[in-house]
Design goal:
The protein has 329 residues and is of the alpha/beta class. 44% of the residues lie in helices and 9% in strands.
Length: 329
């Protein structure tokens, strides 16, 4: 695995803080009805993405996830201004304003969505990996889903095929404790979701999802296994979301005390504490990073606010037939 250095911690702090503040701004403009529809925020789960990105080769590896999907493409390299514009439904967005919150997509940076169907991305992730194996691309696909999606039948079909074909895919369940508002304890007779991999002989195990180092180590091991042609891995990354399932969630299923207890494990605070302990940055340098994050969030908001809405003609322009489609004679 790439060495975790002083710069790694500084990057993690700045990136995770930006993702958090970016989504805090989204929550604010959602209340103002500038962002419509559903809005599922990632607050608290940032270490999962930060650790994964450290283990990935961003020149070729791919990522697919569910609808809690705003900050992942930013981490992969997409312009955050375009992501915010997409949430505003503007023509400058990643899908020209036609995807919205639940369907962020970036072909250029190998981020394949953003899927609203619970568990729908699980077989798609295996399909992307199949394509890479078929073409000999030496790329690995990270396929994320929630603890609720782990109960979908398509997971079992996908696990079976992925193991049978030794596909270069890493399956990661972001277990934040609640499938919408239903705790894991109520959906199965055990909470060790990772054990679902045992039935297929798939390497699997639990990971501390509040610590980017632990995530990076586990994901790196899984990616290296996939690159060697040894097939998939299934990781249960145990994390926690500080906001509700979506902005419309009243959160009656958990107490404020529970949320506050998990905030003591906040991955941003954990990383900041290490930066301070090891004297990787002075208070002045940390404040400068904080200000840089605030300024970038303002830039994103300004860009989205000032961008135009799509023309009606775009409804027709984005439906096309590829004349040189390579797999049909």
């Amino acid at each position: 695995m790439k060495k975790i250095t002083k710069q790694t911690y500084l990057n993690w702090y700045k990136d995770m803080l930006f993702w958090r503040k970016f989504e805090d701004k989204l929550a604010s403009v959602y209340i103002q009805q500038k962002v419509r529809g559903f809005l599922h925020l990632y607050n608290g789960q940032e270490a999962v993405l930060a650790g994964s990105l450290h283990a990935m080769d961003l020149t070729k590896d791919k990522m697919i996830t569910a609808y809690r999907n705003h900050v992942q493409p930013i981490g992969m390299g997409e312009d955050p201004k375009r992501v915010m514009a997409e949430l505003y439904g503007k023509a400058t967005g990643t899908s020209k304003g036609m995807g919205g919150s639940m369907h962020i997509f970036s072909k250029e940076y190998r981020f394949y969505g953003g899927h609203g169907i619970v568990g729908g991305q699980i077989p798609l992730g295996a399909g992307i990996a199949f394509g890479d194996k078929y073409k000999g691309n030496d790329a690995v696909t990270l396929t994320y889903f929630g603890d609720g999606a782990a109960r979908q039948g398509s997971l079992h079909e996908t696990f079976n095929m992925a193991m049978n074909w030794k596909l270069p895919v890493v399956f990661i369940v972001e277990d934040n404790g609640y499938a919408m508002g239903t705790s894991v304890e109520r959906t199965a007779n055990h909470t060790d979701i990772w054990k679902l991999g045992l039935g297929y002989g798939m390497p699997c195990g639990p990971v501390d999802g509040m610590n980017p180092v632990k995530v990076a180590e586990a994901v790196d091991e899984a990616i290296q296994r996939a690159r060697r042609g040894e097939g998939p891995t299934f990781l249960q990354v145990k994390t926690y979301r500080y906001r509700g399932h979506s902005m419309s969630d009243a959160q009656h299923y958990r107490t404020k005390d529970e949320v506050e207890e998990y905030k003591k494990l906040d991955p941003i605070t954990q990383v900041l504490n290490i930066i301070k302990e090891k004297k990787y940055a002075t208070d002045k340098e940390i404040e400068a990073m904080n200000q840089e994050v605030k300024d970038l969030v303002k830039e994103c908001e300004k860009f989205a606010e000032e961008s135009p809405y799509p023309e009606i003609s775009q409804l027709h322009d984005v439906v096309y037939e590829q004349e040189d489609y390579p797999f049909i004679k």
